[in-house]
Amino acid sequence: MFKERSRHVVRKERRRRSWNRGDLAILLFGVLAFLSLTFGAPLFHHMQVAAGGNSAVLGAPAAGIVSRDAAPKATETAAAGGTKAADGTGADGSVADGSGAAEGQAQALANSALQPPLPLQPPSPALPAAAEPLRIRYASAGLDIPVHPLDVDAAAQASQTVEPPATKDGYWLTPFGSPGQGSTNTTYVIGHSWEGADAPFNHLSSAAAVGDRFEVDTATGTIPYTVDNVTTYVKSSLKDSPIWSIVPNRLVLISCFTEDPWGKNVVVTASPAS
Fold first, then answer.
1. pLDDT digits (tens, 9 = 90+) for 61-78
2. How far apart (Å, rounded) are the C-alpha atoms in residues 250 and 179?
3. How far apart are CA 140 and CA 203, in angstroms?
4. CA–CA distances in Å: residue 267 to residues 74, 219, 230, 243, 244
5. How many structural domains compose the chain?
6. Does 33 fall in a domain?
7. Are 145 and 136 in contact (CB under 8 A)?
8. 2 in a domain, yes or no?
9. Looking at the structure, do residues 144 and 234 belong to the same domain, yes or no?
10. Which of 68, 92, 100, 116 is most buried when burial is the number of CB atoms within 10 A of its CB?
């Protein structure tokens, strides 16, 4: 009787043992297969993410976990001195496909368009060949006179103290410059202002002004001039003044200052007009 009971117990234990883990696994996979066929493949994807617990966003790697696509990429030196990744993105996230250079060029063009244009330099006037002056016509100063050459000796040239002949004409100092193309120095024309009598050079003291235009006839043509400066000098200081600087094609007219003919000189400086 005891043996029969023990056999019955063994049979029950064997029946219980028949539902082992393998059986449960088969049952679970069967259920999952049924659910997969019913709801589709996304169920497994969601289950894998939820089971992993790595991220709240599907497809994004969890913090502290480096995905295969997030591995460091080789870099190369960019032309502008920075670096760019192998996929063409710069260190600042910009795409190094040439569009940045094009945008820079476009910006440079836009900036240049906003800049005020540079002032145009007036072209150098076409002048006749350098030659001796023959006549000066300065209408606004009442000056229309012939010009004669005046040789200056070495002593007068060194002291820059010249006394023209006592006439009402103009005199060109020949040791200095000639007006025209190829001039190598300033051209000087001097003349007397007359006290107690009207004379052409008298009007330089009262009528000459900056911006005036006049003409000089030479042996090779006519040259227009514009007045740059009108200055009064004490006679004793004239020899040390800047009017004696070497300036090709500059023209200087010198006479006595009518309000103080014995103590001062009036000097008109002019350049070829554009």
1. 333 333 334 344 333 333
2. 8
3. 9
4. 78, 25, 6, 8, 11
5. 2
6. yes
7. yes
8. no
9. yes
10. 100
